[in-house]
Amino acid sequence: MFDYIVVGAGFAGSVMAERLAGTGKKILVVDKRGHVGGNAYDHYDEAGILVHKYGPHIFHTNSPEVYDYLSRFTEWRPYEHKVLGSVDGKLVPIPINLNTVNLLYGWHLDSEEMEEFLRSRAEPIIPVRTSADVVLSRVGRELYEKFFKNYTKKQWDLDPSELDASVTARVPVRTNQDDRYFTDAFQVMPLHGYTAMFEKMLSHENIETRLNTDYKDIIGQVPYKNIVYTGPVDSYFDYRYGKLPYRSLEFKHETLDQQVFQPTGTVNYPNEQAFTRITEFKYLTGQAHEKTSIVYEFSRAEGDPYYPIPTTANAEIYRKYQALADNTPNVFFTGRLATYKYYNMDQVVAQALTLFKKIQHL
Predict the structure, then answer these.
(1) Does an H or E element contain 236, and which?
(2) What is the rounded distance in angstroms from the CA atom of residue 153 to the CA atom of residue 137?
(3) How much of the chain exceeds pLDDT 90, in percent?
(4) Bridge partners, 292 (sequence order)
(5) Looking at residue 341, which CATH number applies to its domain?
(6) Residue 44 contacts by C-beta under 8 Å, 6 or more apart in sequence?
(7) Number of folded domains that form the chain
(8) For residues 23 and 8, what is the distance between their CA atoms, to the nearest angstrom?
(9) How many angstroms separate the Cα of 169 from the Cα of each of 126, 313, 326?
C-alpha cells in the first residue's frame, strides 16, 4: 500500500516525493519517460559533454527557502547567464540595455540619455493587456519589431497582441550596462548536473521509482491512498472541456570539433532563422573539453507539452479544469502542466513546497 502515487519525476513530483517520504509516507513515483528530472534532465553525450536534452535549464531564484532546500541534494557552481541577440547583422545584449542600443545604432548614450531615448520612442498604452502593449509602451515600435515581434511569433505562433502581458513582462529593459539575463540573488547551476540532483532527491528508502510507466496503466493494480499529479491537467480529466493548447519544442543537438562555438551561453535569433536560439552547454556547466556541444531550438505546435499558452480563451478553459481539480478528493495537482502556468523551475519548487506544507498532516 502506497500513501502516495506521484505522477511525474520532474521538479514538482520529485520535491513532493522527497518531502512526503521524509514524513514516513510510502511513495511510488511513476514517469512515462525513461529517466528522472523531467525537462531538466541532463546527460553526457557521445563526446562526453554534459548536455541538457530538452534545452537549456538555467537555475536562478530570489528565494532562500528554495535555494536552501535544493542545496541538500547538490553542490553548486556560480553561473550568471548571458544572452546575445542576432539583430541587423550584429550580436547585441538581451535583455535590451544601454550597450544594446549603442551597438545597434553606433551611439554613445549614457544612462540618462538612454532613458530619454526610450521615453521618446515609447507608445503609452492604457490599460496594458497584451505582450505587445508591454513592449510598445516601454521601448516603442522599432525595438519591438527588431527584438520581440518575430521572436514571439516564432515561439508561440501568435502575434504578441494575442498573448497575455505576462509573457513579455518577464523580460526587463535596462538603462545601465548590466548584461546578465537574470538579476536574481541566487544564480547557480548544479555542480554535477540536474540528473544527479534528482537521483539524490529520490534516493529515500520510502520512495520507489518506476520509469517508462504510464500511471493510467498501473492505477488499478497498485493500492494507494492519494495521488500527486504533475502532468497536463486536461489529460487527467480525459479532455472533458477540450484540449488545453501547449507549445512544444524540437531540439537539434550537435557536437563540433572546436573548443568554442559562440561568444556566450545562448544566442537568440529573433528574425530570419527558423530556430529561436542556439545554446552552448559548456558555458552553463563549466566543463572543460576540447570539443563543444550546442543545441538549436525550434518552436513547434505538436509534441511534448512545454509551455502553456497564456491567452484569455485558454485561461477560461483552464478555470473549468481547475474547478474539477479542486473538487477531486485525494488528488493534488502541482507543477507547470498541472496548473497551466508558465513557471520557472524555482517557482515550481516553491509551489510544491507550499503544497507539501498544506497536505503533510493528512
Answers:
(1) helix 233-236
(2) 19
(3) 97
(4) 256
(5) 3.40.50.720
(6) 50, 51
(7) 2
(8) 20
(9) 15, 19, 29
